[in-house]
Amino acid sequence: MFNRKRIWVFVFLASTVLTGILLGERHAASETNLSKGQTIYIPVYSHVYHGHKQHPFNLTASLSIRNVEPTASITITSVRYHDSTGKLLKSYLEKPVRLGPLASTHYTVKESDMAGGFGANFLVKWMSDSNVNKPVIECVMISTAGQQGISFLTIGRAIEEVN
Fold this sequence. Notes:
Structural class: alpha+beta
Helix content: 10-25%
CATH architecture of the largest domain: Sandwich
Low-confidence stretches: 9-14, 26-30
CATH topology of the largest domain: Hypothetical Protein Tm1070, Chain: A
Shape: elongated
Largest sheet: 6 strands, antiparallel
Radius of gyration: 20 Å
Distance between the termini: 59 Å
Oligomer: single chain
CATH class of the largest domain: Mainly Beta
Number of helices: 1
């Protein structure tokens, strides 16, 4: 049974952590994060394992690319899907795609496509003529089976900057 002192300690610690998170996000949001282009790595899971026998649970993966710049366009020059060994499985673009201010686009890996494996990834390259806000690039994985459902998000990480 919890006593009042333990509850107050828990509330104090939880509020301290929450305050730190909120201040950190506020600080991060106040920093301008401009670039002329990047290569972004985004983790993708074509499936996850469940149960003690590690049964695969297939997932649909939806890559989302969002231009958060309110006044300028960006150009997506490459969207490539790689498997767990790094092998290129699919290149999604035949020619560059221009995203206008606040526009977005998406690319999908079907639930039945398990070729990527547990360690699959997208590499996305984008560029702009001027310094702009960096786009938000994420991948949403989702699936349902019977009464079980799963969904989660991975966030892109810059691995190269264009100068």
